[in-house]
């Protein structure tokens, strides 16, 4: 891609710079090298501990290294909860084709690895959510449908609210509410109150909340542990 002219060469807008990184494959290279550097540091520490003169020092070094690694991984996993996954998401991310579920979204066993740091986890989450936005949206719809199946009363409430607004549309067309703004405003208020009552007492919001919670958890874990692979989108020319 080509950046817009900048005679002073002071800065490049973040979206343009991230798009260039994505199209050129540097994000995948950075993710791979970060994981390789983290994995190569483990044997160095263990070999250094093995060359210690006293066996007690070896045991304490191994034990200390284990707990330090465990604590580091817990911190990395907990950092996933502090990331705003939608901060870099845009409407254009939903306009493209849905990535393949088998080869693109799920991948294979080698497509996943534990993030070595909070920075790598954040980079993976933001980038994978942009790439698989349509897949995650589909998963939310599936989870919401499953929640409605498990809660038939919520399904009745959702259908009843839709029927209520269809009735409002029919009455508006029949009695020409467009010619009477006050009557139209009053009827819309009645419809909103009726919809709120139906959604509340028939537990539609509980089904929606459970679907959101499950889909959000799956999205964060998948995006955080999924390695960045080369995007199939073609590079944009000049």
UniProtKB/TrEMBL annotation:
It holds the Pfam family PRA1. It is a multi-pass membrane protein. It is found in: Endomembrane system; Membrane. It comes from the Eukaryota. The chain crosses the membrane at residues 136-165, 208-225. InterPro entries: Prenylated_rab_accept_PRA1 (IPR004895). The keyword Nucleotidyltransferase does not apply. The keyword Metal-binding does not apply. Keywords: Membrane, Transmembrane, Transmembrane helix, Transport. May be involved in both secretory and endocytic intracellular trafficking in the endosomal/prevacuolar compartments. Belongs to the PRA1 family. This is PRA1 family protein. It comes from Camelina sativa.
């Amino acid at each position: 891609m080509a950046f817009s002219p900048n005679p002073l060469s002071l800065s490049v807008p973040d979206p343009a710079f991230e798009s260039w990184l994505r199209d050129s494959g540097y994000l995948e290279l950075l993710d791979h090298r970060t994981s390789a550097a983290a994995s190569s540091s483990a044997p160095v520490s263990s070999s250094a501990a093995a060359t210690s003169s006293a066996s007690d020092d070896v045991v304490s070094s191994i034990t200390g290294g284990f707990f330090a690694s465990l604590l580091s991984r817990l911190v990395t996993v907990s950092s996933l909860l502090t990331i705003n996954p939608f901060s870099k998401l845009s409407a254009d991310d939903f306009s493209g084709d849905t990535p393949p579920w088998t080869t693109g979204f799920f991948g294979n066993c080698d497509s996943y690895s534990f993030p070595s740091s909070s920075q790598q986890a954040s980079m993976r989450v933001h980038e994978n959510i942009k790439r698989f936005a349509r897949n995650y949206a589909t998963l939310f719809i599936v989870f919401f449908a499953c929640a409605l199946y498990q809660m038939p009363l919520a399904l009745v409430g959702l259908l009843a609210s839709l029927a209520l607004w269809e009735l409002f549309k029919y009455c508006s067309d029949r009695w020409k509410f467009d010619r009477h703004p006050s009557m139209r405003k009053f009827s819309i208020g009645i419809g909103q109150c009726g919809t709120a009552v139906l959604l509340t007492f028939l537990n539609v919001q509980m089904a929606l909340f459970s679907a959101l919670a499950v889909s959000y958890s799956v999205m964060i874990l998948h995006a955080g542990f999924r390695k960045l692979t080369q995007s199939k989108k073609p590079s944009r020319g000049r």
